[in-house]
Every structure is written in C-alpha cells, then in structure tokens.
C-alpha cells in the first residue's frame, strides 16, 4: 500500500496527507485532529480546510478527497460553541459570531459544490457542525458506530449549517420531529432520510483505503464519481447487516404531526405519546428539557425555507445564527450544557406560549441589506463550477 505523505504538521488542527494510487493519481486525506474535543469544528479547522479543498479541487493530480476525524469516537461532534460562548459573554456577538458562521457556511457550501468526489467517513458521533460538513459531500459513508443528531435545541440554537435544506428532503414531518427532539439516529436511519449514501463496517476503513489506492482513477471528475460509487457499493455489499434504526419503526407515529394545525399541538402530541420505546422516550425527554424558542425557530425555519435553494437557505441561516448570538438563549444553553455543565438552563422563555412572535420574526429579518456576507463567495464558486 502506498505510504501517506503528510503535507503539514502532525499536530495541526487538520492534518493533510496525500497518497499515490496505482496509476499515479493522488488522493487527498484531510483529518480533523482534535480527538479530545470529539473533533469539534473550530476557527482554525475551517481556516485550514477551506483553502486546502480549493487547492485540491484545482490540482489535476488529485482524483478525490477523503475527509475523516481523528480517533474512533467521532467524525465531528459539532461546532466549537464554547469559543462562541466566550465571544457572546464578552458582548461581541455581531463580530466574532458572524465571522465564525460566515466562514463555516462558506466551507459547507464549497463541499456541496465540490467538483471532485469527497468521501466523508462518518464514523462515530456526527452532530451539528459535523453534519454540516457531511451533508454536502458526494459520498457519505456511515458505520455501525455512527450516531447522528441535530442537538441544537438543547443549547438554544436551531438546526443550522443546512438543516433548512436537508430536513425538507426527509419523509414528511421527520425533519420537524428530529429538529424538535434532537433525537439521535443511526446508520440505517441516516440512509433512510438521505443523510448518508453507503454503509461500511467500521473495521473496514483500512480495506477501504487500500481499495481506493488500487483503483485506476480517471481524468474526469464525473468518471471518478462513478468509480467511487461502484467500489463503495461493493464494500457495502461485503459488510455485515446494518443495525436496525428507529425511524422506520416509528414513522407512522411521527407523520401524525401533520394532523395538527399548530406547533403547540405538535409538541403536546409528542410529549403525550404513551410508549415503551426507549428511543421515543429519550426524544420526549429532550423536547421537554429543550429550549422553547428553539422549537419555535425549527418550525418557522422549515416554513421560511420551503422551496428555497441551498444558497438561499444558507443566507437565511447565517442571519438566524447571528441573531441567536444576540438573544441570549444560545449563550445560556451552551453555559448549562458545556461550560458549567449543570444541565439546568434558565431559559428566558419557559414555554412555547411565552415566546413572543416578534422575537421569532426577528430571526428572519433581513439584517444584511443588499450586501449579504455570503453572496460574493457563493457567486465565485458558482462561476467556477
């Protein structure tokens, strides 16, 4: 097997390597390198990843890119919201918070629009910002250890980094349910709701790399997309049966959310379900303990984003995220879960009924005017594509 050639420090926040395939083409490997924080996505990672992906996309020698996380526990457990909490507590929400989310959305959009194949090895925990990285990749691989969630309502946020786009691609009302409850899903669930493309056993990663290096990659991106799909299908077929998920079993219950006219009725329905299903019970507990403002935002973001393209969803979400840094629930949620870890957030709005309509509406106001921070970057990528 070809030796990996490291392009930067082994201690870097993202380690970049290349390997030479049998016919001389190169594969780029990018590894999120913060295993102690479950590879939480931070400023430094974003600032390293974005230009390297751009460079590899322009390099004719690179056939495809593999993006993974260091260690066995997580691909990426979310964005580095602890650093954002520090900025918010120092009264700098409109500067550092906006900068972080702007750069994160640019990176995610690049992955969605990437010309060459990107394989994301979605092993272990994939949450929040990690799902933002994974969702747009051309080849999303999950394993028996994959645990995927959008837990933003537990910290006073909302399903960001593309939730407005990919939640609509799920079976009816499943996106709303997952956004309201932060319910964790596994590999079978992820494939069912179109968040993953292939299943490969976790211990087959070395075999996957070997197959990648032994493949005669073509000179066009489209050919290499097909080649990668075919070899992943073969690995999928040679893997064990996927662990059973929870969404298919509970789909009829979840889809009854469509029978109700108001968000309050939908929330009450979930909370009042009588069930012995442990997964549903955890979802009920998370909803009951979560942020009421976040629940209102999940519902409204899905209404506002219906029919929008990816770029418009990202633009809307950036405004929502910056606003979240100002309102206070996001700061309090991060404090309770990740700073003080007391698990007892003191929400400003204790119930859905307490959430003022004008506060919810403020998240969807046009705060950027005609000069949206993402517009130039998105336009440049679209021209390159």
What profile does the largest beta sheet have?
A: 7 strands, mixed
Which structural class do the helices and strands define?
alpha/beta
CATH topology term? 2-enoyl-CoA Hydratase, Chain A, domain 1
* Amount of beta strand: 5-15%
The total number of structural domains is: 1
Gross CATH architecture? Alpha-Beta Complex
Looking at this structure, what is the CATH superfamily?
2-enoyl-CoA Hydratase, Chain A, domain 1
- What general form does the structure show? globular
Q: How are the strands ordered across the major sheet?
A: 1-2-3-4-6-8-10
| SSE arrangement, N to C | EEEHEEHHEEHEEHHHEHHHHHHHHHH
The overall pLDDT, averaged over residues, is 96
Q: Tell me the distance between the termini.
A: 33 Å
In DSSP terms, counting alpha (H) and pi (I) runs of 4 or more, how many helices? Answer: 17
- DSSP helix fraction: 40-55%
């Amino acid at each position: 097997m070809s030796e990996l050639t490291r392009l930067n420090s082994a201690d870097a926040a993202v380690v970049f390597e290349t390997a030479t395939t049998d016919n001389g083409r190169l594969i780029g490997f990018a590894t999120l390198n913060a295993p102690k924080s479950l590879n939480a996505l931070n400023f430094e990672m974003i600032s390293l990843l974005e230009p390297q992906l751009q460079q590899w996309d322009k390099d004719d020698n690179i056939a495809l890119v593999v993006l993974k996380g260091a260690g066995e526990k997580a691909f990426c457990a979310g964005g580095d919201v602890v650093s954002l909490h520090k900025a918010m507590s120092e009264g700098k929400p409109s500067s550092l918070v906006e900068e972080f989310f702007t750069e994160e959305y640019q990176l995610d959009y690049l992955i969605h629009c990437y010309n060459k194949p990107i394989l994301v090895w979605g092993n272990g925990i994939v949450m929040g910002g990690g799902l933002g990285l994974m969702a747009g990749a051309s080849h999303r691989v999950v394993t028996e250890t994959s645990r995927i969630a959008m837990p933003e309502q537990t910290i006073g946020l909302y399903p960001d980094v593309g939730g407005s786009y990919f939640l609509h691609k799920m079976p009816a009302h499943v996106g709303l349910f997952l956004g309201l409850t932060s319910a964790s899903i596994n590999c079978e669930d992820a494939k069912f709701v179109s968040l993953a493309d292939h299943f490969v056993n976790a211990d087959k990663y070395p075999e996957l790399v070997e197959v990648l290096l032994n493949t005669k990659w073509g000179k066009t991106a489209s050919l290499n997309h097909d080649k990668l799909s075919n070899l992943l299908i073969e690995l999928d077929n040679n893997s064990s049966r996927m662990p059973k998920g929870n969404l298919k079993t509970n789909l009829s219950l979840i889809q009854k959310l469509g029978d109700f006219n108001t968000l309050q009725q939908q929330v009450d329905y979930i909370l009042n379900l009588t069930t012995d299903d442990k997964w549903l019970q955890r979802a009920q507990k998370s909803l009951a303990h979560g942020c009421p403002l976040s629940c209102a935002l999940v519902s409204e973001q899905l209404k506002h984003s219906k029919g929008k393209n990816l770029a418009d969803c990202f633009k809307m979400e950036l405004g929502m995220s910056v606003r979240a840094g100002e309102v206070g629930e996001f700061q309090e949620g991060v404090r309770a879960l990740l700073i003080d870890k007391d698990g007892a957030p003191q929400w400003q709005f204790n119930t859905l009924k307490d959430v003022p309509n004008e506060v919810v509406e403020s998240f969807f106001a046009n705060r950027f005017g005609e000069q949206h921070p993402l517009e130039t970057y998105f336009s440049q990528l679209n021209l390159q594509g």
